[in-house]
Amino acid sequence: MPKKVFSIKKSVSSKKAPESEEELFSEPSETKKAVVNSPSVVRAGKRTPELLRGFRDILPDEQPYWDMVRDATRSVAEAYSFDRIDLPILEREELILRTIGKQTDIVEKEMYAFEDQGGDRVVLRPEMTASAVRAYINHGMLNLSQPVKLYYMGPNFRYERPQAGRYRQHHQIGFEVMGSEEPILDAQLMVLTFHLLKDLGIDTVMHVNSIGTLESRQQYKTELTSYYRSKRNQICEDCKRRLLKNPLRLLDCKVETCQPIKADAPQILDWLDEDSKNHFMHVLEFLDEAGVPYTLDSRLVRGLDYYTRTVFEIWAAADEGERSQNSLGGGGRYDNLIEMLGGREGTPACGVALGMERIILAMRELQVEIPKHGADVFFAQLGDAARRQGLRLFEECRRSGIRIREAFGKNALKTQLELANKCAVPYTLILGQKEVLDGTIIIRDMESGAQEIADVTKIVSLLKKKLEPKEKEEKS
RNA sequence: GCGGUCAUGGUGUAAUGGUUAACACAGGAGAUUGUGGCUCUCCUGAUCCGGGUUCGAUUCCCGGUGAUCGCCCCA
């Protein structure tokens, strides 16, 4: 339930009697006058609504980073034979409840869930694996050649306390492989993740673990729980809670006093069933072969209930050893999920999800160079006649592949040349009244300042000729 | 959800219980209405919101909101 209906309310004193808001919207002329005369209320009407907490605008400045991440993702996905899928942002609440596990924080307190006008319980998706699996089942993808490999990018929503690299709306990149339990596929996910991030200038280390099947994990949980029960009076409050709610999370505790207890706790690897153990060993072998740096992390568990066997997290190598909170991504195998959602029984799958904001944060910290979109030519115009021709001339250039910039919004030639300078173009075209009458145009070499007058009808081919040698230089 | 720190133009900083809240960058206009990279002039533009203390609050106090860090959790 939304707590506040009108954002205006914030600017009006929230402590005033509730009538004050009534006054704003109701008629009585005397009180209305009084209210309108009060400066704070007058301003309140004009106040710009603020961004919702944990939400943000991605401004033009930052877009080059996003473009770079998206481009790299597409190219890696294509290379590894993943097909793009776009999934809806709104899903049935049931889908998420059956997927993530009702006990998790995500479901218990972080979901944007509500009833729509038709009475359906819906949620803004908190993650995308559930949707991908649903789509796999809905569209009968089990009839395709297996495994089905899908990738996607898009926003997710979690009502959490915002922090650096953590937002209520955040974006994820995901890769899912459905319909095969070959350990090489688990490894491939990690390999492609490693290389994707490397392409983006981030060196990473994979943290890997196996949490076995549901059955073997259950046995381990029992063991772990009884171990911690015996130490119950020595552990922190959070751990006491975890003990009841989510025992595997005990292994995540960072409290000093819990560390020795944690160190002696039973290890999940000792409780794996034979098949899982085998599977895991193969995964590690493949990783070794692929040269992906990883560390075995027997305390890595992952938050979502649907994981089985392989689980992993990706950390920036620069963050190793530091207590940076944010992994760049994580994933694992979910061999039961497809069946749990009504798909064919025993259909195995695995996947990985990466946080785009976190990737970009890491890129900024590492000062990764962003490729700039250069320009070849700037078009400067003077006077109405020139502008009229300008639109057509501009389009002609664009069509023939010349990267051209303009500033039709400016009049002064001086200003336009300043902008041309900022664009770092080698040439500027100057079209004024005189040139329009003569059917000519000026080409200015921005480096030397030399100008020549050209026939306006031949300008495109002339420019291309001038630009050619420069392109060759750039390539060599 | 809990705890710490913080909040001044678009950005980065300064200052103050008392007249026009300063500076840099960015933005806009201009330096004989047709020429950039240097320079100069002018302009736009801010004390997060609400309440309290006070003759007077941007400054002090309280509350809210937001950001940030840690915890929880997670991408």
TrEMBL record:
<feature type="binding site">
    <location>
        <position position="302"/>
    </location>
    <ligand>
        <name>L-histidine</name>
    </ligand>
</feature>
<dbReference type="InterPro" id="IPR004516">
    <property type="entry name" value="HisRS/HisZ"/>
</dbReference>
<dbReference type="InterPro" id="IPR006195">
    <property type="entry name" value="aa-tRNA-synth_II"/>
</dbReference>
<dbReference type="InterPro" id="IPR004154">
    <property type="entry name" value="Anticodon-bd"/>
</dbReference>
<keyword id="KW-0436">Ligase</keyword>
<keyword id="KW-0648">Protein biosynthesis</keyword>
<feature type="binding site">
    <location>
        <position position="158"/>
    </location>
    <ligand>
        <name>L-histidine</name>
    </ligand>
</feature>
<keyword id="KW-0067">ATP-binding</keyword>
<dbReference type="GO" id="GO:0006427">
    <property type="term" value="P:histidyl-tRNA aminoacylation"/>
</dbReference>
<dbReference type="InterPro" id="IPR045864">
    <property type="entry name" value="aa-tRNA-synth_II/BPL/LPL"/>
</dbReference>
<feature type="domain" description="Aminoacyl-transfer RNA synthetases class-II family profile">
    <location>
        <begin position="47"/>
        <end position="371"/>
    </location>
</feature>
<dbReference type="InterPro" id="IPR041715">
    <property type="entry name" value="HisRS-like_core"/>
</dbReference>
<keyword id="KW-0963">Cytoplasm</keyword>
<dbReference type="InterPro" id="IPR015807">
    <property type="entry name" value="His-tRNA-ligase"/>
</dbReference>
<comment type="similarity">
    <text>Belongs to the class-II aminoacyl-tRNA synthetase family.</text>
</comment>
<feature type="region of interest" description="Disordered">
    <location>
        <begin position="1"/>
        <end position="31"/>
    </location>
</feature>
<dbReference type="GO" id="GO:0005737">
    <property type="term" value="C:cytoplasm"/>
</dbReference>
<keyword id="KW-0030">Aminoacyl-tRNA synthetase</keyword>
<feature type="binding site">
    <location>
        <position position="176"/>
    </location>
    <ligand>
        <name>L-histidine</name>
    </ligand>
</feature>
<dbReference type="Pfam" id="PF13393">
    <property type="entry name" value="tRNA-synt_His"/>
</dbReference>
<dbReference type="GO" id="GO:0005524">
    <property type="term" value="F:ATP binding"/>
</dbReference>
<protein>
    <recommendedName>
        <fullName>Histidine--tRNA ligase</fullName>
        <ecNumber>6.1.1.21</ecNumber>
    </recommendedName>
</protein>
<feature type="binding site">
    <location>
        <begin position="127"/>
        <end position="129"/>
    </location>
    <ligand>
        <name>L-histidine</name>
    </ligand>
</feature>
<dbReference type="Pfam" id="PF03129">
    <property type="entry name" value="HGTP_anticodon"/>
</dbReference>
<feature type="binding site">
    <location>
        <position position="172"/>
    </location>
    <ligand>
        <name>L-histidine</name>
    </ligand>
</feature>
<keyword id="KW-0547">Nucleotide-binding</keyword>
<feature type="binding site">
    <location>
        <begin position="306"/>
        <end position="307"/>
    </location>
    <ligand>
        <name>L-histidine</name>
    </ligand>
</feature>
<dbReference type="GO" id="GO:0004821">
    <property type="term" value="F:histidine-tRNA ligase activity"/>
</dbReference>
<comment type="subunit">
    <text>Homodimer.</text>
</comment>
<dbReference type="InterPro" id="IPR036621">
    <property type="entry name" value="Anticodon-bd_dom_sf"/>
</dbReference>
